[in-house]
From TrEMBL:
Gene3D superfamilies: Glycosidases, glycosyl hydrolase (family 31), Golgi alpha-mannosidase II. Keywords: Glycoprotein, Glycosidase, Hydrolase. The lineage of its organism: Eukaryota, Metazoa, Chordata, Craniata, Vertebrata. Residues 518-605 form the Glycosyl hydrolase family 31 C-terminal domain. GO terms for biological process: carbohydrate metabolic process. GO terms for molecular function: alpha-1,4-glucosidase activity; carbohydrate binding. It comes from Antrostomus carolinensis. This is Lysosomal alpha-glucosidase. Residues 48-112 form the Glycoside hydrolase family 31 N-terminal domain. PROSITE patterns: GLYCOSYL_HYDROL_F31_1. Belongs to the glycosyl hydrolase 31 family.
Amino acid sequence: IYSLDFSRDPFGVLLRRRVTGTVLLNTTVAPLIFADQFLQIATSLPSRFLYGLGEHRGTLLHSLDWNTLTLWARDVSPTESFNLYGAHPFYLLMEESGDAHGVFLLNSNAMEVALQPAPGLTWRTIGGVLDFYIFLGPDPNMVIQQYQQVIGFPAMPPLWALGFHLCRWGYGSSNETWQTVRAMRNYQIPQDAQWNDIDYMDGYRDFTLDPQKFASLPSLVEDLHKHGQRYVMILDPGISSTNPHGSYWPFDEGLRRGLFLNTTQGQPLIGQVWPGFTAFADFSNPDTHQWWLENLQRFHAHVPFDGLWIDMNEPSNFMDGSEEGCPPGELDSPPYTPAVLGDSLSAKTVCASAKQKTSVHYNLHNLYGLMEAKATARALIQIRGKRPFVISRSTFPSQGQYSGHWLGDNRSQWKDMYYSIPGLLSFSLFGIPLVGADICGFFFFGFSGSTSEELCTRWMQLGAFYPFARNHNTQNEKAQDPPAFSPAARTAMKDVLLTRYSLLPFLYTLFHRAHLQGDTVARPLFFEFPRDVATLGLDRQFLWGRSLLVTPVLEPGVDSVTGYVPQGVWYDFYTGSSVNSSGEMLKMSAPLEHLNLHVREGAILPTQKPETTSKATRGNPLRLIVALSSSATAWGDLFWDDGESLDTFEQGNYSYLVF
């Protein structure tokens, strides 16, 4: 499919696609620089249509106008041009012919990727080696499948993971958390899982429970289980280090077994996170996985949680480096520092010179969240014997095998709601299909007041079509769970959640295809219409699989929305009325209670009469939505199993139906 030519002078390689003759890589355009702490290689690009290179906030399609993207895991509220929580050195490029290819640099060091208008691209990393994987597609779906053949296919989530999740920081007590659950049930609004943020802990210490405010948590969890619902709580990797000896087992035992990140002097590196001074668990050490499991087993005996939310795992530190700063030397002050936020590798994290079991933190920093997710998923399997549910903030390639991701501490603003769509679609490219943003926004910044009813209604409509759908809010803000709003808004939110629940068989089947062969779940339009240039920059709409088009309202004060409808016949999801598009922008009616959904011709969607939990929905009659093509054909499929057992596909404990 390709030809590869080496050039001695100027030194470099040329990679061509044989069928079209397109030059995919040409590294002779600039010298290769290959030093221990500075590696640089540049290439020309065959087009300007470049995607991927996470984690950043921005449009789905990158600008090549001298745009530098830095990859170094960092705790910061998503802001354009900053390096964010995860690192994904992978890009997808659409060639002028409509063919696609992908490039993955397997390297965990701090790096920057400079995009140039030529069009060209420069990789610049400060460690490791240049280990490139090229995926030739030629279709974008196939590029992503090929990428996941290298990094691993995503885990199959339990069915309940695809229900609606509700959370906030600042419920203040287990009784208040319980009140919210009861209000949701009272209004018969679908909810599969209730979460708690760090306020459930005693002094923000992992594996503890506030004995006053959260004394009734075990009873709440029991009640959730009785109602077919689940409980998820937060955990941070920073372990409180200042308790009297003998009073806090996680730290005492971790210290005894030598499981924390150490300074160059061989003492635990001490930083500061929510509980105050903390040591940081070294998840590159297999013994740490055992200690993590033991801590979780002890806590689970008291509070039988169902899933875990791992946060602050960049790792985040309220100090730069440690309480003693960082020592001089080429790890903390390398000859070249990429354009990281804070201009230093230790900004709001630990020292790059910190010692871990496998290597120095300089090499392992971007892998921290992945290693913690691995330990957490394994522990959940051992404790519950069922499919694990983990949501992680920091991520790296292959993360999808162990966890999903949420897009971090967003704001309650229209702009943030829009940016969640390119965020979602980028993580689809990264092999992490279980992804979503905090619905209605996490915090309100720079304005007075909290999320508006209109914004939250529109966001619940969009969020009902995030693969991972969770409404989350910060402390000291007005409540934004559905019962907190007017009857009209509450009803609109309930209706769109019922629509999601009716589509769970379809969504679950998409996740099966992701697990089996690396298909995307939330999908950019250009994946299905790669030769339609109009789709290449679209990131205000998306598809579920190949056949369900979601066109959300992303601005205030409107009762219509304009969206692109690709060529073909599309059916209104609710009414079945059809539109035959030549590939054009169409204005659609969108009153506040309505989300536009269209079914593509030739599709068959399996649906189910919805209830308020996925468990109750499972028992209901199934029904098919058949959208005939112009030639009167249609196709669809359904994967069905018990929704939570491990390896059902691998062991043959499932039904697979083709319609």
